[in-house]
Write a structure and sequence with these properties.
Layout lengths: L5 E3 L6 E3 L7 H21 L3 H24 L5 H24 L5 H23 L9 H22 L4 H36 L14
Antiparallel strand pairs: 1-2
Main location: membrane
Membrane topology: Multi-pass membrane protein
GO molecular function: CDP-diacylglycerol-glycerol-3-phosphate 3-phosphatidyltransferase activity
């Protein structure tokens, strides 16, 4: 039986400790990803699509690299487990804002995807209120993020290179809509999990000293 607080490392039979360290090389790469979010957004809003795609590519590489180094160097941290999905969501929101500002995506698509993230923030507050930690990421959510990270760059590529836009645009929209559907499917799963966790929590017994004598 593995000790509490341990997670199995990908591709390794041994366990990797999840620590509370803050200053690690993988975490520094995650902070770099976060710092590039406003750069990405500004480039996208200003129509510098090629530069924005390069920044997005650098972010994707550092995402892979920090995960690899965290396992390789035994530097998996709780902070890193929070920063990685947070960075993914911020890049998605930034891409939606930039593409929406330039009217390159339907307005409703941006609203649908952002609304799901708002719902997750509310769920996080509910969980915290009941003393419950963050929910584990479900495969549907990972598939949604993957679809959006294919669809949104394709939409950017269609704007950057008009010659291939007629091919990239429909695929970009298709993957983006698929990502939005899966995003909400994962959101519904999170709602169900939250409800189940709250209902399954043991109700503390009342202290008899707090009751009034009748």
């Amino acid at each position: 039986m593995r000790p509490v607080g341990y997670a199995r490392s990908v591709g390794k039979p041994s366990s990797t400790e999840v620590s509370d360290r803050i200053v690690t090389l993988p975490n520094l790469l995650s902070f770099l990803r976060l710092a590039l979010v406003p750069v990405f957004l500004i480039l996208l809003v200003e129509g510098n699509d090629v530069a924005a795609l390069i920044v997005l590519g650098v972010s994707g590489f550092t995402d892979f690299l920090d995960g690899f180094l965290a396992r390789r160097l035994n530097q998996v941290t709780r902070l890193g487990q929070i920063l990685d999905p947070a960075a993914d969501r911020l890049y998605i929101v930034a891409a939606l804002l930039g593409l929406g500002w330039r009217e390159l995506i339907p307005f409703w698509l941006a609203i649908v995807i952002v609304a799901r993230d708002v719902m997750l923030l509310v769920l996080g507050g509910v969980l915290a209120k009941h003393g419950i930690g963050a929910l584990p990421v479900v495969k549907t959510g990972k598939a949604a993020t993957a679809a959006l990270f294919v669809g949104l760059p394709l939409l950017m590529l269609s704007a950057a290179l008009p010659d291939i836009g007629e091919y990239a645009l429909p695929f970009g929209l298709a993957f983006s809509v698929l990502g939005a559907v899966l995003y909400w499917a994962a959101g519904i799963i999170y709602v169900i999990q939250t409800r189940r966790l709250i209902l399954d929590r043991p109700v503390p017994e009342s202290d008899s000293s707090d009751t009034l004598d009748t």
